[in-house]
């Protein structure tokens, strides 16, 4: 049985933009977030409070959050350490997301820390979250496989979850950072997590690197999981993992969910308009598919086709 309602978190201005070489001006990022809000998104992972040397594209995290903190949706941001947490709280985030890799090699390229060090770095972040009343969430990157080490045992993912839960996280995202997951694998990893940690709220974060993104969502829905992350226009990718490509695309996901009769509260046409705006801003074609043809209910005037065919 599918859930009847799904919450989508838009990560387009965070995961989506983090690998873009050309700096997207701060006011454009703010406009995109306002566009997501107008389309009905209620949770937005707006940016990351990471080292600007590691991710120069997101060096304007404080300005972006300050401009959107009061526009309505829950504003979340990634934080890798106490310095990031302090910056995030000062800017006014509602939620901080710590991120731990499920493999040592991804942890060292992404965070320059071992997995143990990265988990230890969550402690001061958790303390800052407690003191400031900001919600603390966690994400496990490469939870469905690592581009350097291959398969990651489900027991490893579950053991990391145990340690994060002990630190007081409010919910957990499983990230398929480089699109390694497939439906059977989603069942195995999420099934294990749901068995070992029945009280934790799971969110799934898929990349469409190998074309499996939406079928993986379907596998998650069958397990009753009702929170997913996606990026407008299918933008995205991790700069610290070779071959990484776009997130699953928000409009495509909303379309699939609406065809399944699952409520998201998102206005598809408004979402398509923001996705097209992002495409124009970046100056290239982006992977989202629905923004080309529109939903099947959008009919096209036959005259325009006759003219085009000649
Ligand atoms: N915000 C701003 N600056 C930060 C920072 C933060 N959260 N954390 C560290 N810095 C600064 C330090 O002040 C220091 O600056 P300085 O050289 O001018 O004194 C510099 O960055 C290096 O700090 P250090 O603690 O030695 O970090 P590092 O070089 O080992 O990098 C991370 C560790 C975690 C900060 C860095 O790898 C990072 O930001 N990674 C983010 C990766 C990411 O976003 N991945 C995508 C998500 S999947
Ligand atoms: Zn991602």
The percentage of residues in β strands lies in 5-15%
Q: Number of helical runs?
A: 13
Strand count, sense and barrel status of the largest sheet are: 8 strands, parallel, barrel
Please identify the top-level CATH class.
Alpha Beta
Order of helices and strands: EHHEHEHEHHEHEHEHEHHHH
What percent of residues adopt helix (DSSP H or I)?
Answer: 40-55%
Instruction: Please tell me the overall pLDDT.
Output: 95
Residue ranges: pLDDT <50 for 5 or more in a row? none
Distance between the termini: 48 Å
Number of self-contained structural domains? 1
User: Any idea what the CATH superfamily is called?
Assistant: Aldolase class I
Shape: globular
Structural class: alpha/beta
Instruction: Say which molecules are bound, naming each kind only once.
Output: coenzyme A, zinc ion
Gross CATH architecture = Alpha-Beta Barrel
Q: Which strands sit side by side, in order, in the main sheet?
A: 1-2-3-4-5-6-7-8
Count of β-strands: 8
Using the CA coordinates, give the radius of gyration: 19 Å
Molecular structure report:
The structure is a single chain. With 310 residues, the chain is α/β, with parallel strands linked by helices. Strand 6 (172-176), helix 8 and strand 7 form a beta-alpha-beta unit. It has 13 helices and 8 strands. The model has no long low-confidence stretch (mean pLDDT 95). The chain is globular and about 65 Å long. The protein has a single domain (7-304), classed as Alpha-Beta Barrel (TIM Barrel). The chain has helices spanning 12-16, 26-39, 61-68, 82-91, 104-111, 115-132, 154-166, 183-196, 213-222, 250-259, 268-282, 290-293, 302-309, and strands at 7-10, 43-48, 74-78, 95-101, 135-141, 172-176, 202-206, 227-230. The protein binds coenzyme A (COA) and zinc ion.
């Amino acid at each position: 049985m599918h859930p009847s309602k799904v919450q989508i978190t838009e990560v387009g201005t965070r995961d989506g933009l983090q690998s873009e070489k050309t700096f997207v001006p701060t006011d454009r990022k703010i406009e995109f977030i306002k566009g997501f809000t107008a389309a009905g998104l209620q949770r937005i992972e707006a940016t990351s409070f990471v080292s600007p040397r590691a991710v120069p594209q997101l060096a304007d995290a404080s300005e972006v959050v300050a401009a959107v903190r009061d526009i309505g949706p829950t504003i979340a941001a990634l934080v890798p350490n106490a310095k990031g947490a302090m910056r995030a709280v000062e800017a006014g985030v509602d939620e901080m997301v710590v991120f731990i890799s499920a493999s040592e090699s991804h942890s060292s390229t992404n965070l320059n820390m071992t997995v143990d060090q990265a988990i230890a770095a969550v402690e001061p972040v958790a303390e800052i979250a407690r003191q400031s009343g900001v919600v603390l969430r966690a994400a496990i990157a490469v939870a469905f496989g690592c581009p350097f080490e291959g398969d990651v045992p489900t027991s490893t993912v579950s053991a990391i979850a145990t340690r994060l839960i002990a630190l007081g996280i409010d919910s957990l995202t499983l990230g398929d950072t480089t699109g390694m997951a497939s439906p059977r694998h989603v069942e195995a990893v999420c099934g294990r997590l749901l068995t070992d940690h029945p009280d934790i709220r799971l969110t799934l974060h898929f990349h469409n690197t190998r074309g499996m993104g939406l079928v993986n969502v379907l596998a998650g829905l069958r397990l009753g999981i009702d929170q997913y992350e996606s990026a407008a226009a299918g933008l995205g990718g991790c700069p610290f993992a070779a071959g990484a490509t776009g997130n699953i695309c928000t409009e495509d996901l909303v379309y699939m969910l609406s065809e399944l009769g699952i409520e998201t509260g998102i206005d598809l046409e408004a979402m398509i308009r923001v996705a097209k705006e992002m495409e124009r801003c970046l100056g290239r074609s982006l992977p989202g598919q629905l923004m080309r043809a529109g939903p099947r209910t959008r009919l096209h005037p036959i005259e325009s086709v006759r003219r085009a065919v000649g």
